[in-house]
């Protein structure tokens, strides 16, 4: 802790109304630059990288390949689909190069990825293709009052797959749904996250969102827990007919969208002439899917869902550290805490060691605000009993353990 770049704060900025951002700022995970724009500190980055690691593992398992696209985008790329127009897309940040060339800052990458794929897709033998990235998106949102749950600058995982046939795309699309379910489960929010029928816009009747029950969310969905059916409020009347459920059977809940997947069919390929040569030598339009997870939004939703009156409560898989180690007392406590820190670190267990010359209450309060899953306390009094105190952040339960019991429990 004495080497940590950030320090905890008693108060968040007066203009910050979102609970997730208030707690993340106070605990030292983010720094507020302006409304809807946050910098992520070394602590915050550890959480984001843990979320990304889970997503990366699941996307790689789908045989998708990671790349990174540019944030600066060509005007001509977007004119092809009509989405350069501010009347069609109202969240553009745009600028000009020194030579007067118009450029946009990426709010999504569907068109640029198709433009890139045109270079590499020639034959049916090249298909299927799937690529994904973790990219900072820039959107000129009118409202940005939900902390990191709705930013003007945010990190998204977006993936794009291209296929020779409708059937092949549909198989992959279903595989992505299952992979997304695993992601949310590993984040610790799987039980409250639902595959939700939503508007497909101009491309298809329905798309699928992943909505997490959250009081701070901006959406409402209608839920049938027994049939595991969830419908976004915007399509409720149309979808109930399609799915054979009565509106009276459904429970209305407030949610936050944490992911979205889209089956474009050949629409995007037709707009941008993404074609390949089939087995007969004929040119065909490719089938395409688009799949997104809001990385920074997931982080905000988790804070909103699990935080209590003391602070953040991180699920173990995405926590910045597994252990918050507190030492209290004199030379014996310092020596033992140092040794325990070295031993745990050598085992690959990530430990945040509170080695500050602070009163115990301040250390305990910071451990609770920061939300690390387990707190180990080493003190002169406990050492006399040859015991260590283990406190579980989520439940507040505290247990006394011998050194062997402690290592067995957390190892």
Helix and strand layout, with pairings?
Elements: H1 19-27, E1 30-34, E2 37-40, H2 42-61, E3 65-66, E4 72-74, H3 75-79, E5 93-96, E6 102-105, H4 110-120, E7 129-138, E8 153-163, H5 166-187, E9 193-199, E10 206-213, E11 219-224, E12 229-232, H6 236-243, E13 251-265, H7 267-272, E14 275-277, E15 283-285, E16 287-294, H8 295-306, E17 323-328, H9 331-346, E18 351-354, H10 360-370, E19 374-379, H11 380-384, E20 388-392, E21 398-401, H12 403-410
Parallel strand pairs: 3-7, 9-12, 17-18, 17-19
Antiparallel strand pairs: 1-2, 4-6, 5-6, 7-8, 8-16, 9-10, 10-13, 11-12, 11-13, 13-16, 14-15, 19-20, 20-21
Can you walk through the features of this model?
- The chain has about 400 residues and is an alpha+beta fold.
- It has two domains: about 20-305, BirA Bifunctional Protein, domain 2 (2-Layer Sandwich); about 325-410, Anticodon-binding domain (Rossmann fold, 3-Layer(aba) Sandwich), CATH 3.40.50.800.
- The chain contains twelve helices and 21 strands.
- Helix 1 (about 20-25) packs across helix 8, helix 2 packs antiparallel against helix 5 and helix 2 (about 40-60) crosses helix 8 (about 295-305).
- It is elongated, with a radius of gyration of 24 Å.
- The mean pLDDT is about 95.
Helix/strand structural class: alpha+beta
Which CATH architecture of the largest domain?
2-Layer Sandwich
Could you tell me the mean pLDDT? 95
End-to-end span in angstroms?
22 Å
Using only C-alpha atoms, the radius of gyration works out to: 24 Å
As for the CATH topology of the largest domain, it is: BirA Bifunctional Protein, domain 2
Number of domains: 2
The proportion of strand residues reads 25-35%
